[in-house]
Amino acid sequence: MSLRPPALLAAIALVSACSAPGAELIDSPLVDELRTGQSSGTQSFDHSALDTLLSAHVNAEAGHVDYTGLRDDRAELDAYLSALAEADATTLNEDEQLAMLINAYNACTLRLIVDNLPVDSIRDISDPWGEPRCEVAGYLLSLDEIEHGLIRPLYEDPRIHFAVNCAARSCPHLAEHAYTGAEVDAQLDARTRASLSDPKFARIEGDTLYLTKIMDWYGSDFTDPAYQGSTTELVDYVEIYTSEAIRARLQNDDAPNVDIVFMDYDWALNTP
């Protein structure tokens, strides 16, 4: 079972009030097992079952998930999650672990929504992020523990914010594929580019750059020197991954500096 330190509990409580939780490792033997795998893991994990489900029920371009159709395939989703529960973290290298944890977050979120249909928003579900519901590598975890207590502090990659999906319309779109250890770097790059090239998440109007609220909540992840690919300024990070039109505007020395405005977040369920 998972062990949550007071600091993480306080951070999780804070998100419901005004902001997002910080990245702090959970106090669990799983952390040691993951670190062991990072140094010596040689195995891979088969995510093909999740890949099949996502390709059948997700429209990544529109950002929609067919939860009703997914409910019909609940047995396959349960089987995949059961396999995750029995994974051995010590046998997986860093990329395999990262892919597994992102997939675990997304698959557990899908199950949470399916279990509560009909529902208008994930926030209508009791304690959706704080209650331990997802077993990964033998440990029962909450969604917050997976994201903020493992993924962010262990792997320090801001691109994960465009990969984990919270089942809301304003969340970066869920991919139509599962993440894999062999492809996770390229997959994270692709999802980040897809998000920051989509006017729903990044656009310029006049001298104002409108950005997804996620880059406000987790802004420090994009500018923290310890994080992979971080930049000094948030706008510089956007420039790397955004569309050519926005990049050209940001690189135009003759144009005025842009002001950043973070867009309102729509928590309605990401259904068609």
Q: What is the overall pLDDT average?
A: 93
Class from secondary-structure proportions = mainly alpha
Q: Give the neighbour order of strands across the main sheet.
A: 5-6-7
In total, how many beta strands?
A: 7
Cα end-to-end separation: 36 Å
Biggest beta sheet attributes = 3 strands, mixed
Number of domains: 2
State the helical fraction: 40-55%
| Series of secondary-structure elements, N-terminal to C-terminal | HHHEEHHHEEHHEEHHHHE
Number of helices: 12
**Percent of sequence in beta strands:** 5-15%
Radius of gyration: 18 Å
Would you identify the regions where 5 or more consecutive residues have pLDDT less than 50? 1-18
Shape: globular
Signal peptide: 1-22
Keywords: Signal
Protein name: DUF547 domain-containing protein
Pfam family, one: DUF547
Give a quick summary of the entry.
The protein is built from twelve helices and seven strands. The chain is mainly alpha-helical and 272 residues long.
Walkthrough of the structure:
The chain is mainly alpha-helical and 272 residues long. The protein has helices at 6-17, 29-40, 48-57, 67-72, 74-85, 94-115, 143-155, 184-196, 214-217, 219-223, 234-241, 244-250, and strands at 58-59, 64-65, 134-136, 139-141, 202-205, 208-211, 259-262. A hairpin with a 4-residue loop joins β1 (58-59) and β2. α5 (74-85) crosses α6 and α6 (94-115) runs antiparallel to α7 (143-155). Residues 1-18 have low confidence and may be disordered.
